Amino acid sequence: MLMMATACGNTSLTVSVVPSSVTLAFRRMSLVCPEGLSSAELRRWVLEQLRREGEPLRWAITSADLSSGTCMRSLEVEAVLIQS
Amino acid sequence: MTSVTEVKPLPTLMVVPTGIGCEVGGYAGDALPSARLLAAASGCLITHPNVMNGAALYWRDPRIHYVEGYGLDRFASGAWALRPVRSQRIGLLLDAAIEPDLRLRHLQVADGCRATLGLDLGPVVTTDAPLGVHLAQAESGTSWGTLEHPDALLRAGERLKAAGATAIAVVARFPDDMETQALAAYRHGDGVDALAGAEAVISHLLVRHLQVPCAHAPALMPLPPDPQLDPRAAGEELGHTFLACVLVGLSRAPDLLTSPSVGPIAHGDLAAEQLGAVVVPEGALGGEAVLACQERRVPVISVAQSSVLSVTAEALALEGQVLPAVSYAEAAGLVTALREGIAPAALVRPLLDLQELR
Description:
The complex is a heterodimer of chains A (84) and B (358). Chain A has a single domain (20-83), classed as Dodecin subunit-like (2-Layer Sandwich), CATH 3.30.1660. The two termini of chain A are 37 Å apart. Chain A is mostly beta strands and 84 residues long. In chain A, a hairpin with a 6-residue loop joins strand 2 (55-66) and strand 3. Chain A contains 1 helix and 3 strands. In chain A, 12% of the residues lie in helices and 39% in strands. Chain B is α/β, with parallel strands linked by helices and 358 residues long. Chain B has 2 domains: 12-84 and 257-347, Rossmann fold, CATH 3.40.50; 89-251, 3-Layer(aba) Sandwich (Rossmann fold). Helices cover 30% and strands 18% of the residues of chain B. In chain B, the strands form 4 sheets. Chain B has a 6-stranded parallel β-sheet, with helices on both faces. In chain B, strands 6-5-9-10 form a 4-stranded parallel β-sheet, sandwiched between helices. In chain B, strand 1, helix 1 (32-42) and strand 2 (45-47) form a beta-alpha-beta unit. The relative contact order of chain B is 0.20. The interface between A and B is large, with 45 and 55 residues.
């Protein structure tokens, strides 16, 4: 059988850097891209918006549309954020 | 020694996002044949556990690099690099919520992989609190999930790393009472993998915190046999656990170099600058790895197939910047063309007129 690490094993000297309270939160955000935002700037811009609510762990644009009558792109972004 | 006629590999990223119901890759490692084809075409494929994990089924190919999704995103964005290794020492992280019999099944899979496959495993750590996995479905139809005690997961991961594990296989107890209709649809090949989103959250958390290769297998009670089972979901019904594929995948997963800009990249390391193509389902162009590749002008090959997402080249105003393929077989042809230095535009008719700048 595989060895089990125990509190009296060599792991007892580990100094944990885990924050005492790590919380995961799911967010769905509706975003409108600023005019002139290029596709090469899109990822960084979405990350900036997400970081206002927490540290993005996993995210994706789940819907994208060009608003009718303008060149404004609207996005739906779903994300799991870390809030510690 | 490389023959003068041998064409250099074209490092290629293959992304099949987890939990979005992809027709190919949305089930039990059923994108694996496509991954093998792309590996043959490119000579070097970087992909993630969702593509490679078929529960009791797996395939090892030295041209395929198994990188968990969080690390894959960091790699594609240029923040991290990859260093292929001969083997990893895999620590096993078990959720305290796993019942004794189910736990024993997982330990026996680990023992089997040591004895039969020669993998380097150990030690085993059990979390100091049940992880408390909850499953959910987002408005878009994708699956996701969360943990009541993510801190317990990270503490257990720290103990494994401190004890010498260079990669971590994590097994969390997942709810058995998944909605019956959704489960039946998935088993019949018509639905989203309800577990996948939560699995990704667990492995992303560990990789972000520890910067070592990680992958997840859910612990579940076996289901009664279903005569209508879709072949794509069959890999998950062959054994008592989903762990074997994870252990095999991690056993040669590349190390994650988290500060590639600090030191020189060694011969054989993989960095985002070397990427020659990314292959992705056509409705899933809004993920971080693909957007990062698009930023770097890495050719994006989008493969037609259904999923719950429709974030296409047209929706992102990327027409003309994405190479469409009707199947992974065509995508492999495009990768071969790129590897050989053949312009994909030369392969279609009519040829577009040359553009003259004025």
